[in-house]
Structures are given as structure tokens and as C-alpha cells.
């Protein structure tokens, strides 16, 4: 709920600013309030879960409703691969032949590797840095299929997230279809487990974080709304019916990290509008510490 400041409160805020005391921006909206406003403006469904890992405080809007993951599944798939490698079931240096018949839409890395071999390490890097869809399918094949991602998520305590199809069918995002979906709460809590807690071993956690921090395709989303001094490890996605999503760990200077999952879906709207909506959520998160 937006706060209405009295004249006295406004004066106190001005004094705080003049004396260098940090405070939330006057008139700034919390992430859950922003999500509700975006729903009204865009006439689509918006889900948000934001966790301040320092205080445990959360901001939630439709946090337990299902949303299509689209490419946000990729951080979970690569986490499952890292876990499987750590257990000795495969090696990141194992290679796979890349054939023309393997290529699916949007494969900027693998389309240049047709006729050669790609290591599983390279496949995950391409998946998380560029969102290469063929590379993501290579990861899924190495795991044994989409169900392996669902099984991995259950093993880390996530009872909601499920993956059912390969790229690019999983981006269909038809309303009411539970396939290839998660909830904002589940996605955020799982990302926290993987990047900040003990869902992966220390070296694998660092590798996953490095891949996600080097994401080249999420600039217009949360990153567009946070200061340049913040560090972001994120994974974005887009699909049918106006679907857009992003999951992230955000590190502000001198503040505990925030974990964010934000999704929108329901009707076709321009990609620019979807991106700006997620940037607005990023600005709301930044406003929590400014």
C-alpha cells in the first residue's frame, strides 16, 4: 500500500536526506505494489516474489500462482547438469556432435558449431550467456530429458517447478497449461538454494553464478532498473501469450542480496512493454535500499 506522507513526515525525510541518512525514496512503490499496477495497466497477469536475504522480508504478488518458465528454466537445467557431474554420472568435458538437424530457433552459438563437437560445459555456458536453445536441448538430452530437471528440483525441495518439453515447444505458454511452469516463490527460493545456499557444491555454485552474471540478453529487464553498482546474476525468458520472465540474485553494495522472480503472461503485448514492466520491478527493488 502506498504511503501518504504528512507535512511533518516530509520534513523529517528532507532532514534525513540532508544529513546523509539512507531512506527509501519518497513516493517509491514496493515491488508488490508495482506488480499490481502493471497488471492494471497491461491487462495481463503478473507474478512477483522478492526476498531480502538480509532481513527475510518478502514482497509478493501472485507468488504461488503458476507461470510459464520459458527460458528461465535454463539455470535450473544447468544446475541439474552440474549436480550430475559432481556425482560422477557425466563430465562437463564430455562432448556432443552438433548436427544441422539439431538446430532450433535462436541458437547463436550452436549454429556456428554445426559439424563439430560441443562440450557440456560449453553447452551450459551458451545456454546461460546467450539463451541458445539448441545448447539447452543438448543439456536436457545429457540429463535424460526434461523430467530430469523436474526430479532435480524436487531433490532441492522445490515441489512446484516442472519441465515437460524441449525447446522450443516449452515456450507455448498456453493459459491454464501446467506444463513447463513454476511459481514466483518456488523459482526464487530454488535460485537462492542454488546460488546462495548449499544446493550445489561451492565450485559449481561459483561456476553457475559466473555464467549467470555474464548473461548477454537480459539487459532491458531487471538490470535496466538497478544501479550500475549492483551485480546481477539472472536468467530471462519469453514465450507465447505475452509471456516474459526473469529470475535473479541481485547484490547491492553493502547490502545483503535480493532474490527476485518476476513473470507476466496472459495476452500478447509488445516485447518492449514486457521488458519495461520487468525494468519497473527492478527499479522497485532498487528503491528498497536507496
Defining key terms:
alpha+beta; 290 residues; Beta-lactam_class-A; 10 helices; disordered N terminus; Beta-lactamase; Beta-lactam_cat; 9 strands; single chain; two-stranded antiparallel ribbon
TL;DR of this structure?
With 290 residues, this protein is of the alpha+beta class. It has helices spanning 7-18, 31-42, 74-86, 120-130, 133-143, 146-155, 184-195, 202-213, 222-225, 271-287, and strands at residues 45-52, 58-61, 67-68, 95-97, 117-119, 181-182, 231-239, 243-251, 258-265. The radius of gyration is 20 Å and the shape is globular.
Q: Could you explain how this protein is built, in words?
A:
The relative contact order is 0.18. The protein has 290 residues and is α+β, with helices and mostly antiparallel strands. A hairpin with a 5-residue loop joins strand 1 and strand 2. It has 10 helices and 9 strands. It has one domain: Beta-lactamase (3-Layer(aba) Sandwich), CATH 3.40.710. This is beta-lactamase. Pfam families: Beta-lactamase2. It is an enzyme of class 3 (hydrolase).
Write the layout of secondary structure elements.
Layout: H1 7-18, H2 31-42, E1 45-52, E2 58-61, E3 67-68, H3 74-86, E4 95-97, E5 117-119, H4 120-130, H5 133-143, H6 146-155, E6 181-182, H7 184-195, H8 202-213, H9 222-225, E7 231-239, E8 243-251, E9 258-265, H10 271-287
Antiparallel strand pairs: 1-2, 1-9, 3-6, 4-5, 7-8, 8-9
Helix pairs in contact: 2-10, 3-4, 3-5, 3-8, 4-5
